[in-house]
Amino acid sequence: MKKLRKIVICLLSILTFAGCDGVDCPLNNIVYSTWGFYADGSNVTIDDTIYVYAKVKGVDTLLINQLYNASSMNIPLSYYQPADTFTLEIHQYVDSASYDIFSDQIIINKEDLAHFNSPECGVWHEHNIKEVSNTTTIIDSIQVVRQIIDTNEQENFRIHFK
Question: What range defines the domain where residue 89 resides?
């Protein structure tokens, strides 16, 4: 009976220690860039419909479809590419049946930083913004507010509209 008790205590101890692996994975390991919309120095809400496309291997890929009544947006950046090219397209409705399309191209030069915590957590990428440029049809300028894009959902860019 004493031998059985020792075996049970030993097994419970092993199971207790095996259950504590100490790995602390982040709750969100998806990295998005956060873009605020500004006009005349103040955060504004865009009442028109917004679409965002990314160039992936020469083909436009829709990232944001029909964003409406928004003051910001979140866009993922690519891994392993030194630059990302986006097209921001705004559909401004003239009446219920027709609209005008305005678009600008945004190019982000960046450095990708891979992070590996453990096999359980996997790899995620952060980005260090080097430079941002854009065309100026509807966008006056883009300001980099936070150069490191990571899992913290903080504003990285401010789009200043004309």
Answer: 27-161
